[in-house]
Design brief:
With 337 residues, this protein is α/β, with parallel strands linked by helices. Helices cover 43% and strands 18% of the residues. The chain has two domains: 2-181 and 216-242, Rossmann fold; 187-215 and 246-281 and 298-334, UDP-galactose 4-epimerase, domain 1 (Alpha-Beta Complex). The strands form three sheets. A seven-stranded parallel beta sheet has the order 3-2-1-4-5-6-10, with helices on both faces. Helix 1 (12-24) packs across helix 7, helix 2 (64-74) packs parallel to helix 4 and helix 4 runs parallel beside helix 5. The longest helix is centred in the N-terminal third of the chain and has 21 residues, at 95-115.
């Protein structure tokens, strides 16, 4: 049985990955490490907490002693590092937190992985490390890194560290860079669950600038299957872009949500743009498609309907989340609307 350490496994993407592994890959044992900050939520894994192939540990990836203990005690073969501070707005307000977790935390994991000679280290990164695109073209794995926010700068630095450990100490690594994820269990500071929650409660839908910023949307389950393909099949030292092939403007996505929920467009309120807002991201995922045989299986139209349905069916989860830190943060950003 393969034994993997999944960091950030109570967060949005990490918990979906853990759920997939425990449901579909019985030959894997998952040690799940999460600090349980505001976006980490054990409710995401409620039915898996007693699963025989799952061990949850509350802890910080910056704690090298804890990481060493976990690796030794559970005889870990590989690390999949989802743990990250990930919201651009928060990084503009509190950049140091992003440096601590995304850079120092990754460095701590890398040092233990090197010293314990793990079979593989998979770093989960983002297309935001590439910067912004014009109206044409897509990011490839050879696009130079040009991050434009404290968040993306911290992730780019972590990616460089991973590569450096591979080059200097022959650490067996892979890096994945995904486009914007959406789906079940996403913390409602991110655009899609924020808009769903606000629309359901007839609150204003804050839209940055003209709303014509373009993102490539990736259904979270498709992202998880891609990460597993990389863990299972990728040659060490390779980087893979993971995209959903679904370019949409923010305003298109918001109107889809309003139409699906039967809400009025009058809820849309354009707000002052955030500093350094990247205009367009688009992923060329041909490498992972051609080399590892992965491709997105969920269209955006299908995925957004699944996502809206999930939030409608899990109102208690949503209510529990928005009653805490998120509500204070939202009100500090946009006012009590």
């Amino acid at each position: 049985m393969k034994k993997i350490l999944v960091t950030g496994g109570a967060g949005f993407i990490g918990s979906n990955f853990v759920r997939m592994m425990l449901s579909e890959h019985k030959d894997y044992f998952v040690v799940n490490l999460d600090k349980l900050t505001y976006a980490g939520n054990l409710e995401n894994l409620a039915e898996f907490m007693e699963h025989p192939n799952h061990k949850f540990i509350k802890g910080d990836i910056c704690d090298g002693g804890l990481i060493e203990k976990i690796i030794d005690e559970y005889r870990i073969d590989a690390i999949v590092n989802f743990a990250a501070e990930s919201h651009v707005d928060r990084s503009i307000m509190e950049p140091k937190v992003f440096i601590d977790t995304n850079i120092t935390g990754t460095l701590t994991l890398l040092e233990v992985a090197r010293n314990r000679k793990l079979e593989r280290f998979v770093q989960i990164s983002t297309d935001e490390v590439y910067g912004s695109l014009g109206p044409e073209g897509k990011f490839t794995e050879h696009t130079p890194l040009s991050p434009n926010s404290p968040y993306s700068a911290s992730k780019a630095a972590a990616d460089h560290l991973v590569c450096a450990f591979g080059h200097t100490w022959d650490l067996k690594y892979n890096i994945t860079r995904c486009s914007n994820n959406y789906g079940q269990y996403q913390f409602p500071e991110k655009m899609i669950p924020l808009m769903i929650n606000n629309a359901l409660n007839d609150k204003d839908l804050p839209v940055y600038g003209d709303g014509l910023y373009i993102r490539d949307w990736l259904y979270v389950n498709d992202h998880c299957t891609a990460v597993f393909k990389v863990l299972q099949k990728a040659p060490p030292g390779e980087i893979y872009n993971i995209g959903g092939c679904n370019e949409k403007t923010n305003i298109e996505v918001i109107n889809l949500i309003l139409n699906r929920l039967g809400k009025s467009g009058s809820l849309i309120k354009h707000v002052t743009d955030r500093p350094g807002h990247d205009r367009r991201y688009a992923i060329d995922a041909s490498k992972i498609i051609n080399e590892l045989g992965w491709k997105p299986s969920v269209s955006f139209e299908e995925g957004i309907n699944k996502t809206i349905d999930w939030y409608l069916q899990n109102s208690t989860w949503l209510d529990n989340v928005v009653s805490g830190d998120y509500l204070k943060y939202y009100e500090s950003m946009y006012g009590n609307r």
